[in-house]
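Tutorial, part two.
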Amino acid sequence: MIGKTAPESVPTGTAPVPRRQGASPPPGASRRTARPVGVKRSSRLVLNGVLALTALYFLLPVWWLLVSSTKTNSGLFGSNGFWFAGLHLVENVKDVFSFGGGLYGRWILNSAIYSGLSGIGATVLGSACGYALAKFEFRGRGVVFGFIMSGVLVPSSLLTVPLYLMFSKIHLVDTYWAVIIPSVVSPFAVYLSRVYAQDAIPDTVLEAARIDGAGELRIFTKIVVPMMRPALVTVFLFSFVAAWNNFFLALVMLSNQKLYPITLGLYQWFTQKDQTTYNVVITGSLLSVLPLVIAFLALGRFWRAGLSAGSVKG
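Running the prediction step on this input gives:
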């Protein structure tokens, strides 16, 4: 119309008009709450402090064991428990392997046999059972799995006396099998294998292998086992450590000193009243931890490989 000027169009690319202080943000604008720098720094310090105290709590007994293994019997009771009082580690190690007629080396070998065979057996049996419960449909599958998981609720020490009575009937008491066979059965291995196989093994891969003519045993060994490697390593390590630290089962089942595991052998040395063996027992305890550390370091790469493979697939 004549006498009225048309509204001027805002050219593109111009800067927006700044909002007044206290004005509400426009609709659709993202609202980000800025956390003060001091709050972030204080929370980080608290978290680091808690983690440091937790690490110290777990490493303090290891430090005490390492320091005490370098002392003599008199030094154990006449010096600070958390600091050195003379380095006698080499002498103590020699005493460990020569004390009692050299039984310590035999006990280490026995523990390796018990733990190795128990770990392998629990891994094979648990992975096969867990895979079958995860990928095969059959009537009563849930009941079977629930019955297996009920074994987790039963303390292992409660089953020791029934196991002793059963093994005495079949004349396996005071043998290697009296410790190995009960350690092979692991409800935890079945549970972990079932959960891992259910999520990590696609049904399409199994069906494709069956269509190609592969049998169930070949599918399990060639396809399932490589895909379940992180879970199998976890099961083996847990079973290995449990069998290595097993004490009560060996105490009930074994009477021959040459069949003792390292835990029972060190306990026998500690309870001897005619000789002072504190330095020998402590140094032997330190040496008994080393195979567990080596096993974790050697098998840890399989965990890392499994985690990286899972991240690439995801």
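Residues 278-313 form the longest helix (36 residues). In part three we will examine how such features are distributed along the chain.
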